[in-house]
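Page 37, continued from 36.
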């Protein structure tokens, strides 16, 4: 079906202006600036007067838990939550069961997504200490990147042998996306904490998390990754930056398309800080840990200074009983967030939609070299979201579409609401109603 999106306020490439967009055959076929004469035939009209039209959000960092962990989430349930939040493309991580560390397993995930995903998709191949041969088979035009765990997290895919790291940074055919935390520091802090707890000298609750997964644990690992990328000329994207100290490792004096070393942060590091552990408790336990108010403010400033290049959610669902039953050492790290990333970031950026679009739509497309997505341009795939900035909306667990049906952002008041989401020109979401007959497409990359 063709669509004529009328009288929208387009936010694209740093400009905001009223225009209408014709979507036909899955593409953006015409952009008509307000006042220019044009009225298409045979197109369903959507009146977007007073609303904003933006490129669909590209979330480069999710854990949709399939295969093997589908009691928490699956590609279908989480892609529904994604499109409800204006996310039209995602890149999923390899710490599933089995871990995605071979080309055969990687292809199985692509086949699964083709059957189940409402959004466009790509998947990372996971690096290990001994799978370099599989890494070298990766086609960078077909796969978003290689995921490197330089700190253990859910799934424990830690790569801790220097020889394996050297080969990976020297020979990887595509971008390396790295989780950076120093395992030795974390282990020592954990042992110390358990010892003090056994003596009754500390109360081990959620607030201890940033004292175990510390600023120094993040910085030491990120600095090592950056040093290796500089030494061997690798393309490195350091994920979920959570500290002010790490920002010194990145540059803002060259265009993004020329950067070899880049950085991502997540909405939760920009919204929460250590003062929220008392109220939110294990709901905001994640790896790396949410840290101080000072770190949060520095990250917010870094968005505008160009030291942070992209926003990814690190959407990582767990069931309530996995999060809230037991103690600090048994509570799982991670939480769902993809449905609310756009509206939370609108709050963080004080409704600065051009900045939001740059960080969440344009920059992922540039950094990952995605073919014809991330912008509102004629001839590009019609991945679009219509956003209302005059909506009075309170995020609530009862409105969650993710399988685990809760969010750490429960209770957050926003004025941003996604009313329509188009994926490849198909209207897949409209005010709470999903078109389950459509499926997303595999992302392709320009190499």
């Amino acid at each position: 079906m063709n669509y004529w999106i009328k009288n929208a306020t387009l936010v694209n490439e740093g400009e905001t202006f009223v225009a209408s967009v014709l979507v036909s055959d899955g593409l953006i076929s015409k952009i008509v600036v307000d006042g220019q004469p044009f009225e298409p035939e045979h197109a369903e009209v959507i009146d977007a007067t007073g609303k904003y039209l933006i490129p669909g959000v590209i979330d480069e960092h999710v854990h949709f838990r399939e295969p093997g962990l589908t009691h928490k989430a699956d590609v279908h349930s989480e892609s529904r939550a994604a499109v409800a939040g204006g996310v039209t493309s995602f890149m999923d991580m390899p710490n599933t069961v089995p871990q995605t560390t071979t080309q055969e397993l990687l292809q199985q995930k692509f086949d699964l997504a083709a059957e189940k995903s409402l959004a466009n998709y790509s998947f990372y191949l996971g690096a290990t200490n001994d799978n370099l041969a599989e890494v070298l088979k990766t086609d960078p035009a077909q796969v978003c990147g290689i995921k490197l765990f330089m700190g253990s997290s859910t799934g424990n895919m830690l790569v801790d042998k220097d020889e394996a790291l050297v080969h990976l940074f020297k020979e990887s055919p595509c971008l390396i996306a790295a989780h950076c935390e120093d395992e030795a520091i974390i282990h020592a802090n954990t042992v110390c904490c358990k010892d003090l707890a056994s003596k009754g000298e500390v109360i081990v609750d959620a607030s201890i998390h940033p004292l175990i997964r510390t600023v120094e644990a993040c910085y030491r690992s990120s600095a090592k990754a950056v040093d290796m990328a500089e030494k061997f000329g690798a393309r490195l994207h350091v994920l979920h930056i959570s500290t002010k100290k790490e920002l010194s490792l990145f540059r803002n004096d060259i265009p993004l398309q020329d950067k070899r070393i880049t950085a991502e942060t997540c909405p939760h590091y920009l919204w929460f800080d250590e003062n929220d552990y008392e109220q939110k408790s294990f709901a905001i336990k994640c790896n790396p840990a949410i840290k101080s108010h000072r770190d949060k403010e520095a990250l917010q400033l870094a968005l505008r200074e160009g030291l942070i290049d992209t926003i990814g959610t690190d959407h990582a669902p767990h069931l309530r009983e996995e999060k809230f039953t037991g103690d600090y050492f048994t509570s799982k790290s991670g939480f769902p967030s993809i449905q609310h990333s756009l509206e939370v970031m609108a709050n963080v950026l004080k409704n600065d939609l051009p900045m939001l679009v740059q960080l969440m739509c344009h920059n992922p497309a540039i950094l990952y070299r995605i073919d014809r997505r991330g912008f509102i341009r004629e001839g590009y795939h019609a991945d679009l979201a219509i956003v209302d900035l005059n909506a009075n909306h309170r995020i609530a667990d009862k409105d969650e579409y993710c399988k685990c049906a809760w969010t750490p952002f429960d209770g957050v008041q926003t004025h941003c609401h996604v009313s329509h989401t188009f994926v490849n020109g198909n209207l897949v979401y409209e005010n709470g109603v999903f078109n389950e007959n459509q499926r997303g497409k595999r992302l392709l990359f320009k190499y």
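The longest helix spans residues 215-232. Flag for discussion at group meeting. The first strand starts at residue 3 and ends at 12.
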